[in-house]
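Incident log, structure service

09:12 report received: a user says their structure output differs between two submissions of the same chain.
09:20 pulled the input from the user's history:
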Amino acid sequence: MNLSAFFVIAVAIVVALTISISPEEPFQRLESVSKNTVEYIGGDGKTTLRGNWHYMHSNASVENEEYEGPGPVIVMAHGFGLTQTHGLHNYITAFQKAGMNVFTFDYATFGQSDGVPRHQVCPKSHVADLRSTVEMITARIHTSTTMEEVDPNRIGLWGTSLGGGHVLQLASDPSFIRQHPSVRAIISQVPHLTLGLQSLVIPSLQQTPIDAIKGLGFFALALIKWSLYRLFLNKPSYYPLVGMPGSPAMMQNPGDYAGYFRLVEAEKDANSYGTRTDAHASEKGTGWTNAATTVSGLKIVLQYRPIQNVESIVTPTLLIAAENDTLCPAKFVKEAHNKIPQSEYYEAQHIGHFDIYGGREFQVTLEKEILFFQKYLHGV
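09:34 re-ran on a clean worker, output below:
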């Protein structure tokens, strides 16, 4: 076999492998839009975002006493690749019972919100969408005659995982706080704070080197596929968000797969959603799939470091970490706590990143979050 023939065969094998890494592409469906759904323009000034009001319960209580509005607003920012329907219900209900209104939303290209290509994870755009959400809430409440239960002067930001990094990134912008003094409290739960290369790839190489090398090899092939799609098809390529160790997936530490899909499955209605839970699973009712554009992973690994700006945060902040978190290690959360003047810190013991959403530590951290918001938003 001559060299040119060998080269052709090698290229054919690489192309075949890259094309085989083909998760189901996400799409947009708006069947879950309700009377409490709000449409507004996102951070890019043109894309329509959609969020939902969850008003405080009529029998809400603060310090065991019945509370009558208007109540503060908690704006919730979700994590990597997830939508407002994924695993937030227990938090929303608890905040409502504690005398707080809640607003959830989808970043551009996710869930109910517009934007293409679908499932484009761009931290800069996410933070801009979060800012637009706060601006929309403030403007609409001040001009509305039908939202007497909402107080626009008491806003809390709540973010988890990647969204935990987003709320800190936004709060570290002095111009945002000057323009929105109504933002009085921030909760950042198991937040993404430093480069994925530092917090995810390097620890994986140290703990499970063979699986990590396999995963990096798959991602290298995915980048080739992305280049081919861009060059010949002028369309994005997709890569699984989460998978088992050593599989083609952006997140693949031990426990990531099961934990991530517990959030995905948490809100699932068996009558309207699909039942598959493998690496190519989709929720037919929402258009969500276990996939994001391939370049999304690069942005997290190589570009996004919210921790570099946290010293400028002046808003009271509660930071929650998980002791055995491999995605967003506790040591970086503790470092952020040491840099933020008005911050409190709690580290949940003996659990990983996704364990924070259930079990005993969920109850413990949720109680701390409620008390923190009530302290700075209710003044108790």
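09:41 both user submissions now match this output. Likely a transient worker issue. Closing.
09:42 reviewer note: The first helix runs from residue 3 to 20. The chain is about 40% helix and 15% strand.
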